[in-house]
Amino acid sequence: MIRHLRSPDLFGPIDRLPALGTRMGERTLEVLNPSTGEVLAELPDMGVEETCAAIDKAYVAQPGWAGFTARERSDVLWRWHQLIIDHADDLAAILTAEMGKPLAEAKSEISHAAAYLQWYAEEANRVYGETVSAPSADRRMLVIKQPIGVVGTITPWNFPASMVARKISPALAAGCTIVLKPAEQTPLVAGAMFALAHQAGFPEGVVNLIYASEADAVGRELCTNPKVRKISFTGSTEIGRLLMRQCSAQIKKVSLELGGNAPFIVFDDADIDAAVDGAIQAKYRNAGQTCVSANRLYVQSGVHDEFVEKFVERARQLQVGDGFARGVDIGPLIDKKALAKIESHIADAVAKGGAIRCGGKRIGTNGTFFQPTVLTGVTSEMTVAREETFGPLAPIIRFKDADQVVRDANETIYGLAAYFYASNLKRVWRVAESLEYGMVGVNTGRMSSEAAPFGGIKQSGIGREGSRHGLEDYLEMKYLCMGGI
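Given the sequence above, the corresponding structure tokens read:
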């Protein structure tokens, strides 16, 4: 079904995977390769009826799964982790075929996904309560933690494997059951991962998968169905607002990892070569299609020209092409809408005085490839400085005043990730504490880890994923007051 896949039965027909918990509908959903436009697979296109059935299965299964000991849940997660490792090459090939990212990046993502499963297999054993000093001798007061219940999860297309693991592994470790809707552009790797979850031994109904092109209808059902106690979503701020409104009638818990407009600041005292390396990573990884991608590059006047010269040279060396080809650094954008968006941002910047230093054009007529692009002379009035591009476009803004650049960096509704390079320790602490972002990379262009809390503030989201804090988001706190002791 999918080229380069050594084990075509890994993904398997949906009706042979009872862990998926849904039936095949009459409609089908085509999955395309963004590099070529070819149809990779046809899947059952599910809707509200199948979503309700999956929710019901998860609801029935949840008390039993919560009744497993922490060690028993941990053991199943460990087995799933090992199966992901054993099939890493196949999973990476599926990911590259449906999403387009270079195979090396896809393999790295699969490893990252497995790391989350490993982390929460361990954290499942570390759900602790507490005792509280009682006001009288005949009472005992304590706090216990219990799983929320059924969790509806919606994952994005840009990291279709790691986002699945990052969201559902803490929920499963806590004793929750799952209904997952992956992005319609990239559902295949999620299907393969769930097939492996079934092999790992999750009981019937614990993990449930919905393939659907009608994201609105499925999302609404997940938000409004009273059997679902929590929604976890990664995607745009606009959709996050919509889901939050739909959940509000039931005061349903939400975890939202939303859009970003990450600043990348280079101060005069920075190691310029290291800053260029970090900026290349933070900007062009996954063709710039990451929520933590460096979207605005601020470079102080004293090092601006040196940084631009070195950065442009590095950007020109990046190879664009099919993710399966040797030596490729950047794959295609996800679709033609993404191409149109990056072109509109470039046109707006040029019309307002910006200069294209390299790139700026589509590559070829097939696929959705775009040159790594660098703009200079960028100002705050340009769209590219205010909106998330989600593509391989690096706008560079010259600045003089160190205090003002922090204010400019914070002048946005978003607060997901920020980066800066500096050597002076006083400046490092002051800037790190002043940036209004949930995550700050100091002298690094890459900071995601299963051991650290991932998430934003302001309109970039609610809650955290990863670390011990990610497990807490799937637990309810219950206070017990015992009298007559």
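The domain at 14-258+460-481 is CATH 3.40.605.10 (Aldehyde Dehydrogenase; Chain A, domain 1). Try to locate this feature in the token string yourself.
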